[in-house]
Amino acid sequence: MAVNPKKLRPYDQPPKVRGPILPNEPDNAATAFLVAALVWFLVATGIGLLWTALQLFPDLLTIRLEMPTFSGVLTFEISPATTTAGFWNSLVYGWLGNAGLGAVFFIAPRLLGRRLVGETMASGAATLWNVGLLAGLAALYVPQLAASGTLTEFPLPVDGVLLLALLLANAAFWRTFLASSERLPYVSIWYFGVALLALLALYGLATLASLSPLVTLPDVAAVLVNAFYGRALETICLSGLAIGTLYYVIPRAAGNPLYSWGLAMLGWLVWLGLSTLAPLATLADVSVPFAITQIGNVATLLLVVPAFLVVANLLLSLGGRWTLVLSPGTVSFAVVALSFLVATVLLEAIGALGSVRTLVGGTEWGTGVRLFSLLGTATLAFLALADHAFPRLLRRDWGGTLLAEATLWAAFAGVALAGLALITGGVAHGSLLAQGAPAEEIDGLVFWFRVVVGAGIGLSALAAAVMALNVFLMYTSGRRAEYAVLGDAAASPAAAPAAH
Amino acid sequence: MTVHTPIESRTRGIPRWALALTGIMFVAGAAFFATNLNGSNPPIIGTPEPSGGGLNAVSIIKAAGCQACHGPDLAGQAAFPSLHGVKDGPVSQNLQQLSKDHPDDWANLWIAGTDPAVTGIDRPVMPVFGGPPYNLTADEIATVVDYLKTLP
After folding, report:
1. pTM value?
2. Is the Cβ–Cβ distance between A212 and B51 less than 8 Å?
């Protein structure tokens, strides 16, 4: 008997199949982290523009709004102090944190030969991480809610949410690692393992140090812990995630084998030791023996060695595919990242020398070198991954577009301009101080360097916007393409090479 | 189906040049360390306030760029005076009069720069760091002053 569907009553209709709140398809977590990272890249560089503007015109742009609440009046404040915190936190945790975790969850299953164990757990980590960051960023602009320190300004409840996210991310990664049949995994996995564990441990320790009712650190110790944390986050976690990513994307995009496994492991071992010791240089206080800070300074000098080993290994892996460097795409992003890696370690090594420290201490030099590391090396490494991964995650045939080229040049020119302006400004500033120049003269000089920094950050923001547009057009206009995905039974063996 | 295409390596051994380079650099680093052990660390700037106070004095000092002129440890450099030892009054000669006229809040006025609230007060040399709508609020200035008074 034919049924007229218009006459069906609600209870006659077949039950709707509801999907899980957190999706459990392969690559869901990687997609969530990488899409969120792209949004945070836009946010961070946008706040970066505001940061430079506030450095130039603090009087004009500072805004304070008082908001009555049940527990008293809260002040919403856009000032140099709150915006500085907003810029660095959104850059480190928002853009680089999301992109790094996205890289781990995209690369690990492909190298370990099995889909992520606990995809839901990793997707949950992505949700918690981004909700926590949003709340934390909002709290930074209300000084009564923010905590103290550098990169540790989020309120305690936000720290708790972020720690839970890191715990889930670690669990998903290590369960996949243990379930894999790979006895001696590829070098990227070693870098990711160390970076993930260090991120969890460091964030946990920094949170513990801020639990003043439970742990009461002496004042100086609290400042030292904060300084160590900020530097270790850069040397171990972010550089580990970036190098691990470069070790994956360059051989994969070039279609070549890695030059040398032994060289890669030597570089990893040397990096592991030195990146752990380098943050000791920040413990510069009378209460700390000079020898300990000197160990940190020497380790900072020697970080040139693992960086050189990484760069040599990856460039030698490009043999026969050098034309890829000149065409827009994954390899060109990655090679620019490698050049920033070399520049950063060289500048850090120079800055670790006592005479240079005396000259540029307290000037813009340190900020410039940090921009090279974060907006240069790490950003371009993750942009290389984004260029490689987004077509595979969104299943689109896309690549080598004019927009990718524009992203590359804007990102490169932006960080080069901003970083060099800060570094040369720092040297000029230090020289004027050493000559006893009046404050007005120094202010006048620093102002023009800050104008150039603003232009550089503006170019980085342009790179973020163009990248976002590229991904949007890829999703909406790109021709659908099938890439084999781990655990996807429908994928044909013929499509397997395209999966990576 | 599990698709697994590992990244192969051209060689598994470590090239000799890499071992030599690493060895030479570590020997040079050890030599540098051994010959640069004489020295001492300056006092680190900053002691954070008890929790719950929002951005602390150290954060404010860093963001306002105080160290650019007064040195990383705020102990002064070149023409810029030390900010240590101001618990009982200013160390600099040019601030003695300001301290006599305003014994309780001379430091706040000194930092407050061109805030209209302090117009007409003779507060020499210190550049613009004034309160709202300027760079630091009165509360932030008070936080910084309280902190400076704790420095030895």
Report:
1. 0.80
2. yes
